[in-house]
Amino acid sequence: MKSLAIENFDVKFTSENDNKQILSFRDPAYPRPHLRRSNWQSLDGQWKFAYDDEGNCSQPGDLSQWTHHIEVPFAPESTKSGIGDPEFHTNCWYEREFDTPVGDGRFLLHFGAVDYRARVWVNGQYMAEHEGGHTPFTVDITSVLNDTGTTKVTVWAQDDPHELAKPRGKQDWQLEAHSIWYPRTTGIWQTVWVERVGTTYIDHIRWTPDVERWEIGCFASLAGHIPVSGVQMKVKLSVGGKVLANDTYEVFDGEVSRRIALADPGIDDYRNELLWSPERPTLIDAEIQLVYNNQVLDAVKSYTALRTVSIQRDRFMLNGRPYYLRLVLDQGYWPDSLMTAPDDDALRRDVELAKAMGFNGVRKHQKIEDPRFLYWADVLGLLVWEEMPSAYRFTHKAVERMTHEWTEVINRDINHPCIVAWVPFNESWGVPNLVETAAHRNYVLAMYYLTKTLDPSRPVIGNDGWESTDTDILAIHDYDTQPQQLLHRYGPEVKLSDLFERKRPGGRILTLDNYPHQGQPIMLTEFGGIAYAPATQAQADKAWGYERCFNITELEMKYAALLETVNNIEMFCGLCYTQFADTFQEANGLLYGDRTPKFPIAAIRAATLSGQGLCTPTAC
């Protein structure tokens, strides 16, 4: 075990092979971890910026003047952007010029995420439109490059702050953040970058591990000018410099779909060394080349992992063995930069802090996180539940928007071994009448089965919290902070039949009629929420939580008592504590908003790991 220092804390939690994994994979903040090229350039930094509240501008020439400068990729509502304007704004404009590298091939412009709708012009020519505030899009700008050596990119972003029929997650529709909602994010909020590729290049890659057969599925699709025949794809897989496979495949119809058989080491000890888990996050390096007539058309680096997640009766299974989930609810906000991390080190540090506090995973709540967070979760070993940001009205348009964007989310993130569950709905948000309205129930069912169709390899939680229809894990939210009350509801004397006949906090039933519990694992996926009120009365009045403590010692004692109780409830196969860090007025984090622990991190860790749990890694 190596020792990883976090500021003043020295906590041992990572496996002995972490160092070589980090050194092997660390490309400086490359925005797309699973398809990495050497010839790329970040466009983050200062752009010209202007609001268009009246919506009078439909193209760049309509804009009378650029009134601001903004630091991309930070939203204009954030202070980190250099603007810090929290008012309501529907339309805004961005523009930047950059030097265009000289070379042959195609030139691709990438946007990590623009909230909510974006149009792009390059050198004055309209190029593309994208809708969906949490997913990436790419524009091939080769045809509009000029001979001046510079390229001008103009972006219009529209994000109606009052629109509730679109996926918006925790972004508040009121002017001041209230209750459990936070400041809005408008426009560009993830990295913008460009790269030069060949005339024929790899557009998408998907890895599908199969531990039972000791194989890795590889699917790749090509783009650009694709020769009718003769193109080959070379794939080299290795771990720590040891080659596992080095194969060449013919490309047919612009695609490659193959299963790569690995040499089965046979003995469990050796097999386990190759399996990915939070305790041993072994990643497999992938080097891929496209070759035609002995000429390399494209070269990319990627990675994958051997690991399986599944449900076996009432247990969550990791790599074929029961695994007790200790998750923490993570909103993914920062005080000065909102949904955008201050830098790549901040994303890595959040992963390290979650592990240092004793958690083996996070439930990313109402946010599709930056791919760099998922990268560090892969490298350092942290499980992730990925949850779709909710819309708050049920309309045909809302259904269309969520279906489209959720499909893009899964397509973007399916390769990350850290992701072990998909969550399309939370607490019936956007489907408020599940009990009475068949269309609402059908919507949840449709998203559950769509998710299972797009990715049959992971569990899906249809509606996290209550009012479940079909689901792979029954997820319960209960913010009673009295340990004895939780034991009364879920302890050894409680029969499952009684549990599902009663109503829980929030006045919601756990399962809808005609969708009885069928033996799925039961988890307490939101509980705690204990706020610590700061010393001054002005600060204390703004602090919100499901319960409030007025000194740190009280918070530490309450957290320890809750975790020991929940960890020992045999009914649960895992838990998720609310929450990782304070988020604006919601002061119920184990950490302050700046990620400083509220009480010693060693004490947090001891409490998190207290109790027996159903199955710890060492016990299994």
List keywords for this structure.
about 625 residues; alpha+beta; seven-stranded parallel β-sheet; 11 helices; 35 strands; about 20% helix; globular; disordered C terminus
User: Within the largest sheet, what's the order of strands?
Assistant: 28-27-26-25-35-32-29
> How far is it from the N-terminal to the C-terminal residue, by CA?
19 Å
State the share of residues found in helices, binned by percent.
Answer: 10-25%
Quick check: average pLDDT? 90
Count of discrete alpha- or pi-helical segments spanning 4 or more residues: 11
Tally of strands: 35
**Over the alpha carbons, how many angstroms does the gyration radius reach?**
25 Å
What is the overall silhouette? Answer: globular
**Uncertain residue ranges:** 1-27, 614-620
Tell me the major beta sheet: 7 strands, parallel
Strand content: 25-35%
Label the structural class. alpha+beta
Task: Give structural notes.
By secondary structure, the protein is α+β, with helices and mostly antiparallel strands. Helix content is 19%, strand content 32%. A 7-stranded parallel beta sheet has the order 28-27-26-25-35-32-29. Strands 5-4-6-12-9-10 form a 6-stranded antiparallel beta sheet, with no helix packed on it. A 4-stranded antiparallel beta sheet has the order 3-14-7-11, with no helix packed on it. Helix 5 runs parallel beside helix 6 (438-454). The longest helix has 18 residues, at 396-413. It is globular and about 75 Å long. The two termini are 19 Å apart.
